[in-house]
Every structure is written in C-alpha cells, then in structure tokens.
Design brief:
By secondary structure, the protein is an alpha+beta fold. The protein is built from 2 helices and 4 strands. It has one domain: Roll (Nuclear Transport Factor 2, Chain: A), CATH 3.10.450.
Length: about 170
C-alpha cells in the first residue's frame, strides 16, 4: 500500500517514521506523566484514555517505565479513503515494562528483559487538510510556533490543532 497515492506530502518511509515518533512520544509522555508534548498529535478520545492512565499514576505516586523503548517494525495494513483518510498500521515494539515509585524504587513489572508487543494504530487526516507549512503561526494570537515540540503557543497558551493539517492518532489497540 502506497500512502503517497492518498497524501502526496510524504512517502511510506516518511509516514511510518512519523507514526513511530508519535508512538514513542505517547509512551514517553506516559512515563513523564504529562501529555502536553503529544497532545496535538492525538485525538481527543486517545488523549482522554491516556489522561486517565496518567492521573491514576499520579494519584498512586507511581511512574510507568518503558525502558529501552523502541519500534522494531511498522507496516501499513489498510488505507480507507472515505470522508477522511484513515490509515491502519501494525506496529511491533519492544521495551522493559515496569512500575516504580516517585523515588524510583522498583514496585512491579519486567525491568530485566524487553518484551515484544504488537499494536494496531489508526491515524486520520482530513482530505481537505491545509498544508502544514502554512500553519507555523498560532491560530489565536499569530505568534510563530514550533509545533514539533509541544504544539502549545508559548505566548498565549493555545493548543495547535494538528487535526486541521496532519495525521493524528485516533485509536490504539494495545
């Protein structure tokens, strides 16, 4: 399946690199117990799902660790061309999966051997999406933004809505 037939801004390798990076950002954000860095790359539904996870970790004074986190492989397995473009990706990742307390004392999980996990992720992009290059300014105050970092305007605090421009994670089956 060739993503460039549906989105001429990138090829399969570029798309899969973007997907891998969004996945890594999400899991790193869970470890940091702060979803700000990935907020603009995931849908509201995915954000709500992981916000609950982060809040549970904070309330229990625990930290989810994904040590040696990496993506082994990612492959496009379906492309739906409907009102929006929906791409389904199979992602194989490996990591240590364990919990520590806020002083980094081990509580539970596997901290010695990386385990392999197979995930199905779905990404959506609006067919009428504006070019991302034109979106480097805050939609609220007009200030220049670096959306690759946080997607949050450093001047007025508005969140950049990536859904209007680029691919956004809309579902993850763990």
């Amino acid at each position: 399946m060739d993503i460039s037939k549906y989105d001429n801004t990138l090829d399969n390798a570029m798309f899969l690199t973007k997907i891998d990076n969004i996945f890594i950002m999400l899991y790193t954000s869970i470890m940091n117990r702060n979803l700000d860095r990935v907020d603009h790359r995931i849908s509201d539904e995915v954000y709500a799902k992981y916000e609950k996870v982060v809040e549970e970790l904070k309330n229990s004074k625990r930290i989810q660790m994904y040590g040696e986190l990496n993506v082994k492989s990612s492959k496009i397995i379906d492309i739906e061309d409907k009102d929006d473009l929906i791409v389904t990706v199979k992602l194989v990742t490996r990591y240590l999966d364990y919990i520590v307390d806020e002083d980094y004392n081990y509580i539970s999980g596997n901290k010695d051997n990386r385990e392999e996990h197979s995930l199905i992720l779905k990404f959506k992009k609006r067919k009428d999406a504006e070019k991302l290059e034109a979106s480097r300014h805050c939609p609220t105050c007009g200030a220049l933004m670096d959306i690759s970092k946080t997607g949050k305007c450093s001047y007025c605090g508005s969140i950049f809505n990536t859904e209007d421009y680029d691919w956004v994670l809309i579902d993850i089956n763990e």
